[in-house]
Write a structure and sequence with these properties.
Number of helices of chain A: 17
CATH topology of the largest domain in chain A: D-Maltodextrin-Binding Protein, domain 2
Protein name (chain C): Sulfate transport system permease protein CysT
Helix content of chain A: 40-55%
Radius of gyration of chain B: 22 Å
Distance between the termini of chain B: 24 Å
Subunit structure (chain C): The complex is composed of two ATP-binding proteins (CysA), two transmembrane proteins (CysT and CysW) and a solute-binding protein (CysP).
CATH architecture of the largest domain in chain A: 3-Layer(aba) Sandwich
Oligomer: heterotrimer
Number of strands of chain A: 12
Pfam families (chain C): BPD_transp_1
Chains: A alpha/beta (345), B mainly alpha (275), C mainly alpha (284)
Family (chain C): Belongs to the binding-protein-dependent transport system permease family. CysTW subfamily.
Membrane topology (chain C): Multi-pass membrane protein
CATH class of the largest domain in chain A: Alpha Beta
């Protein structure tokens, strides 16, 4: 309040003008900008903003060096099924980088993504992967090491609702996969295990971020279950002194699938760019950045560099236990399927 | 002359209760937002606000609100005039129809626009073949914002104009004033504060709308990202300070419009006192 | 022409602008409101009647209706009392901080609902500013239906205040002067003289608050806990269907909310019309 008022008004005006100016120029001249400079739109899941904000400039520099062309990359982030829905309804994304196989499959079923998209890139078109892991409070007071520790009477869990979150679905499937192995496929025992498991949930947030808030900021529950990458990010974000990461000895492999949205890329004249962009994610540089964000990667040099960051753990795939994603969705998550039955009272 | 509730004890009791409850219920959340926004100091707050993408989001949000207001204003006044000054079959239904936006969950509101104007919708597919994109561009954001905010002006005016009745206007018209003159000279002065409330509410809601906009915007940073969407992304990305800085800006915009209203009221009351 | 003349004959013969205002209103309502709603019904056409009823009467969905309606009713009633009090204080009294209080009223609209939700959850959770005072006293707000009602009340309070306020402001001073001069006490005068003028606005505002609460999503999910059968709201059920790409299912549940809300609003409007007519001795 010590500033002279004319200065304050001036400052306010210029800031407002800058804000309105950028918006208006974006509204009217965006098509002109596209004509000068190709623009790639990457539609991604909601917690990947920082990740791609780090990778994109590297790719832009690499592309310019290789092809002598300056390009722009735009990002769109949201829940991965909301993103897929947007693309089906006309969001002109050139590539998708999702955290749910089913959400890319939906696009393939709609004919926007090639049917054999999983063969278009290495490792099932998943340049990086993760698994489901636990974040517990300091000293791990409830002694949680694996899935069967979670069904103890005094344990309370926080993980996102499998109905609304892919992250939550992985947690559910990981627990089921563990039980399937533990009880030798005895359906009744598995279901008992799962019923207790679901009953120990303290809060069902709709997404991973909400679950984190409940666990960290509201102090609810003894364990937060999420992707290993997330759990590590959260721990470094909120103080490594207060929380510990536990990677269970057996867990599920979580793929982060990528695909070119063929129709859009063609329409935007970006087919080559889109293909290169996704291939770039497999390059050593990109893999190193991904590992830095706590994702597990395939590049052997990088794997060796980050070896002590990712404990050895037995990872099973959805296909191993549930046949396919399609079957898993149908038998477990659709309305009236197993998840609903297990939660019924 | 004494008025109802003028006794000092009643007065103090009511004001006290109102202040206490508002402090707990409304002021505390506001304080919490600003506390979070400034939790890492003014410099971090400022860095978050002056970021290019935040500036763009602020600009887009304001532009959308500025475009929404006149449209809702014309519609609101026309509808309020229609249903309070004339009686005709279907009047109640018309009056109820404008409440549809209140009855529809914002996400569903976004969805119905998407289903109609999106690539697979029956208008959208035609637009697509003509390479016109409404959804996932600013026109889509404007459309759903209008949908969500259009009842406010009408809703403010209808009860008031109903309570006032139309005698003054009838008198003016009988004395030979034209329709527009009657409206400007008789109706408008009577409804101006309600109209202003309506605009403020429209503005507040337009600036803050998240659910419907999130469905049709595509949330492309630097292009179709409004401030509430930007905020959500920052929050998802564990940038809580950035998210609350945006929230603080939204709260500030609301408070500024209110301050503008208070200023206008004050100036008007002074002019009346002098004349 | 004769039909038009009949339409206009109701209450007013002299005022102009019927055609213009009718034109704008009908055009706007058709394009902005009704046309998109057809999309919703287009989705419903994909369902057979049996499927439709199966979706909307599913156990978990029905439980969510109960939670939503119960919490919305509580929120609306609280808002009716609180909103009336606030409107009264803002219109009738001068006191320091009045402008600020007035400004605060619109805050819930301006804040994106998700921010409201996160903030309320922060305040009322066991370790929040308010939560750590009231939870030891045995009141748990966050993650119970009380939290849901709280979030609903927060997002819809401006409806009551802003609907009642202008009517109260418009009430001529003579009205209560007359009542007071007849020697009535404050309470009686308020009930007998002021309330009849306020009823339409108060009921409308409360009704709008209730209806708004039925559809609210963003503010609630953060504080609700979202446990099946206990704290799941109907808007969440719609959201779940959308996540499953089940537009038809989402539209089915949304249509229930829409019908209930519209029926309620229509009832309020009809009642309000009657009431006003009675008040003005036959004038609408």
């Amino acid at each position: 309040m010590t500033l002279p008022s004319s200065f304050r008004t001036g400052l306010r005006r210029s800031l407002l003008a800058a804000a309105v100016g950028t918006a208006v120029s974006g509204m009217t001249f965006s098509s002109a900008a596209v004509a000068q400079e190709r623009e790639l739109l990457n539609s991604s899941y909601d917690i990947a903003r920082e990740l791609f904000a780090a990778i994109n400039p590297e790719f832009q520099a690499w592309w310019e060096e290789e092809h002598g062309e300056e390009i722009a990359i735009s990002q769109s982030h949201g829940g991965s099924s909301a993103q897929a829905r947007a693309i089906m309804q006309g969001l002109r994304a050139d590539v998708v980088t999702f955290n749910q196989v089913t959400d890319v499959q939906v696009l393939a079923d709609a004919g926007l993504v090639a049917e054999d998209w999983q063969d278009a890139f290495e490792n099932n078109a998943s340049p990086y992967y993760s698994t489901t892991a636990f974040l517990v409070r300091k000293g791990n007071p409830k002694g949680i090491e694996s899935w069967d520790d979670l069904v103890k009477e005094d344990v309370q869990m926080v993980f996102p609702n499998p109905k609304t979150s892919g992250n939550g679905r992985y947690t559910y499937l990981a627990a089921w996969g563990f039980a399937e192995n533990e009880f030798d496929g005895d359906e009744e025992q598995i279901q008992d295990f799962m019923r207790t498991f679901l009953r120990n949930v303290a809060v069902f947030d709709t997404g991973g971020r909400g679950a984190t808030t409940s666990f960290i900021e509201r102090g609810i529950g003894d364990v937060l279950i999420s992707f290993e990458s997330e759990v590590n990010n959260i721990r470094s974000e909120y103080g490594s002194d207060d929380y510990e990461v536990v990677v269970p000895p057996v867990s599920i492999l979580a793929e982060f699938p990528v695909a070119v949205v063929g129709e859009n890329a063609e329409r935007n004249g970006n087919s080559d760019l889109a293909q290169s962009y996704l291939e770039y994610l497999y390059s050593e540089d990109a893999q190193r950045q991904l590992a830095g964000f706590n994702y597990r990667v395939h590049n052997e040099t990088v794997v060796a560099e980050f070896a002590d960051q990712f404990p050895d753990t037995e990872l099973f795939e959805v296909e191993d236990v549930f046949g396919s994603w399609e079957e898993a969705m149908e038998n477990h998550f659709e309305g009236g399927a197993l998840l609903d039955q297990l939660q019924r009272r | 002359m004494r008025r109802i509730g003028d006794a000092p004890i009643v007065r103090r009791l009511l004001i006290g209760a109102a202040l206490l409850l508002s402090a707990l219920f409304l002021l505390l959340p506001l304080v919490a937002i600003f506390a979070q926004a400034f939790s890492q100091g003014v410099a971090v707050f400022w860095a978050n606000v002056s970021n290019t993408f935040t500036l763009h989001a602020i600009g887009l949000t304001l532009v959308i609100a500025l475009m929404t207001i006149p449209i809702c204003l014309v519609f609101g006044v026309a509808l309020a005039w229609l249903v309070t000054r004339f009686s005709f079959p279907g009047r109640r239904i018309l009056q109820t129809l404008i409440d549809i936006p209140f009855a529809v969950s914002p996400v569903v509101a976004g969805l119905i626009y998407l289903l109609l104007y999106g690539r697979n919708g029956w208008i959208g597919s035609w637009l697509d073949t003509h390479d016109i994109q409404l959804m996932f561009a600013w026109p889509g954001i404007l459309m759903v914002t209008i949908f969500v905010t259009c009842p406010f002006v009408a809703r403010e005016l209808i009860p008031l104009m109903q309570a006032q009745g139309s005698r003054e206007e009838e008198a003016a018209v009988t004395l030979g004033a034209s329709g527009w003159t009657t409206f400007w000279r008789v109706t408008l002065p009577n409804i101006r504060w309600a109209l202003l409330y309506g605009i403020i509410l429209t503005n507040a809601r337009a600036v803050g709308e998240f659910g419907a906009v999130s469905v049709v915007s595509g949330a492309i940073r630097g292009q179709t990202n409004t401030l509430p969407l930007h905020l959500e992304q920052l929050y998802q990305d564990y940038n809580a300070v950035g998210a609350f800085a945006s929230a603080a800006l939204l709260a500030l915009i609301a408070l500024l419009t209110l301050a503008a209203k208070a200023g206008l009221e004050w100036r008007a009351s002074r002019r009346e006192a002098f004349s | 022409m004769s039909q038009l003349a009949f339409w206009r004959s109701g209450s007013t013969r002299v005022l102009p602008g019927f055609g213009l205002s009718m034109g704008i209103s009908v055009l706007f309502i058709s394009l902005v409101l009704l046309l998109p709603i057809t999309g919703l019904f287009g989705q419903l056409a994909n369902l057979s009647l049996a499927e439709y009823f199966a979706i909307i009467t599913e156990g978990r969905v029905v439980a969510s209706y109960m939670v939503t309606i119960g919490a919305a009713a509580v929120a609306a009633l609280v808002n009716a009392v609180f909103g009336l009090l606030l409107a009264w204080v803002l219109v009738r009294y001068e006191f320091p901080g009045k402008r600020l209080l007035d400004a605060l009223m619109d805050l819930p609209f301006a804040l994106p609902t998700a921010v409201a939700g996160i903030t309320l959850a922060t305040l009322y959770a066991g370790n929040g500013w308010v939560g750590n005072i009231i939870e030891p006293m045995g009141f748990q707000v966050a993650y119970t239906w009380v939290g849901i009602a709280l979030a609903m009340a927060f997002t819809s309070i401006p409806f009551v205040v802003r609907t009642v306020q202008p009517v109260l402001e418009d009430l001529p001073a003579e009205v209560d002067e007359a009542a007071m001069s007849l020697g009535a006490t404050d309470g009686v005068a308020f009930r007998r003289v002021i309330m009849p003028h306020l009823w339409p606005a108060l009921v409308t505002g409360t009704g709008l608050a209730f209806v708004r609460s039925l559809g609210e999503f963003g503010a609630i999910i953060f504080i609700a806990g979202n446990m099946p059968y206990e704290t799941e709201i109907t808007a969440l059920m719609i959201f779940v269907k959308l996540q499953e790409y089940d537009y038809a299912g989402a539209s089915a549940i949304a249509s229930v909310v829409l019908f209930v809300s519209l029926a309620l609003l229509l009832a309020i409007n009809i009642w309000q019309g009657r009431f006003v007519r009675r008040l003005h001795g036959g004038k609408g």
